[in-house]
Amino acid sequence: MTSSVATSDQRGELGALLDRHRVELTGYCYRMLGSAFEAEDAVQETMLRAWRYYDRYDGRASLRSWLYRIATNVSLDALEGRKRRARPMDLGPAQTADNFALGEPLPDAVWVQPVLDGQVLPASGDPAEVAVARESIRLAFVAALQHLPPRQRAVLILREVLRWRASEVAELLGTSVASVNSALQRARATLEASDVTSADSVQTVRMDDEELQKLLARYVDAFERYDMDALVALLHEDATLSMPPYALWVHGPAEIATWMSGPGIGCAGSLLVPVGVNGSPAFGQYRRDPAGGHVAFALQVIEIADGAVTAINAFLDTEKMFPFAGLPLRRD
């Protein structure tokens, strides 16, 4: 079938074949690029190239492998000459009550951005594979991936998240198995230095776990009542609070409570609405509007470990994030 003579039925068949891989390709591009919006653009470009050059597809590799090759090339092109995306914790030390200063917002391109679960996670499948997929889109893991050179990043994702064989990755990248294995070892060493484990050794947290749901219910209750004592009791001793697009971040339960009781006191009376983001518990936060009702304030992505909240990541670009997450900007 060539693009010039394809019938409408053939075009529809090809479109359906390509679309079957959209979610997993979006997950791959998100891990590579650190932005849900850039990942969507990359997958769209991948689909356009696949459509345009389908007559050159010779069937020697599977359609899935061919699409991953295109997506890898698109992602590597997008990353060329670009600074890595980061989290506030990557840019400088934590601030304390002695020098709290929000500062100026930084451009979107600086930050690792959140992604909706539905964009990148399969709706069904092998539970172990779904668990690895969920863990490998955690903010901490995606941020750690950004420390890797782009080709090492692709190797680690393909080998340890997607479970490709070294020979398959070598063929995709047009290199040798020895080169792939060497890149994987260097990538692992970089992640270990970043204190983030590879996806294959992460202990997953089941989102239906009863204790987890109890913890989240207590978090919502404490936050909506703005009870700092109750909130602090849920925080890990190394918990962090960050607020992209600002570089400020706060470390430790006492400092977080001081921030929230001082500069962040406007969050008192907020409502939290659950949403699935980055394989983690997440909430759309609405602050009370003096004119009535509540207005969008932050997309909170909550990280949990050892039975406690380890991070509150509050993304403040609600004009962009809330419509993306299917959340209204107001609740009356």
Element layout with pairings:
Layout: H1 8-19, H2 22-33, H3 36-52, H4 63-79, H5 88-91, H6 117-120, H7 127-135, H8 139-145, H9 150-161, H10 166-173, H11 177-193, H12 210-225, H13 228-232, E1 235-242, E2 249-251, H14 253-261, E3 271-277, E4 280-288, E5 294-305, E6 308-315, H15 318-324, E7 330-331
Parallel strand pairs: 1-6
Antiparallel strand pairs: 1-2, 3-4, 4-5, 5-6, 5-7
Helix pairs in contact: 2-3, 2-4, 3-4, 9-11, 10-11
How would you describe this structure to a colleague?
- The protein has helices spanning 8-19, 22-33, 36-52, 63-79, 88-91, 117-120, 127-135, 139-145, 150-161, 166-173, 177-193, 210-225, 228-232, 253-261, 318-324; strands at residues 235-242, 249-251, 271-277, 280-288, 294-305, 308-315, 330-331.
- Helix content is 47%, strand content 15%.
- It contains 15 helices and 7 strands.
- Mean pLDDT is 89; it is low at 1-6 and 197-204.
- With 332 residues, it is of the alpha+beta class.
